[in-house]
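User: What would this chain look like folded?
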Amino acid sequence: MIRQISVTYWVGAALLTLSTSVLMAQEDGATKQVEKTTKEEATKTQDKAVKSIDPDDMSEDDFRRMMEAAFQLPGGDEQRKHLEAFVGEWDTTTKMYMAGPKGPAMESKGSSSVKWVLGKRYLQEDHKGEMMGMPYEGMGLTGYDDAKNLFVSIWANNIHPELLTMEGTRHPKTGVITMYGKMDEPTLKMFGRMVKYVTTIVDEDTHIFQIYDLAAGDDYKVVEIEYKRKSE
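Assistant: Here's the prediction, encoded as structure tokens.
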């Protein structure tokens, strides 16, 4: 789900799989520099925002117009309609490519429940299954950011403490949703690896979610999850 963008216990599985496709490692010094730069950029952005919005210079009409603009951004509702296809109860089949996309896949079964929440602003996915023989639970939210004009998603699970975030677009003709984000591989001291998430609707009862490790190659697939709608 995006799957889910629906957005999938995609995340935890991908973290283990990524460790087998490492092509480069980051040194501790580089990691600290990235953290330092991120904090500095965040501080500058915050200072700029504080200077650009001075409550003392804002009238009631200015404030009302600002709030109306924030709640009436165009396009979002039409885009969210495309997420309706992911609502429902699903059986999942997950394939993890531990030896690379051309190698044999490790397969496991699971199930996902996807529903609208927060006034139909977001899809919430709750997943249960197993990973490497261990019980696995994951939860994600997927929606559309009206300000950025992008689909957005987050994912958390019971195995890895990392909260994954991703954003991307939907192809207007094919309906394929492609999102990008970053993943960490703490066991290898690798942080911020770029990852691509692709969700393809096959038919109204089937969609496929794939994860690609961009550090290893644009087409280096590490996880594929097939969603089949449960029969009533």
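The chain has one domain: 10-36+73-229. If you want, I can go into more detail on any region.
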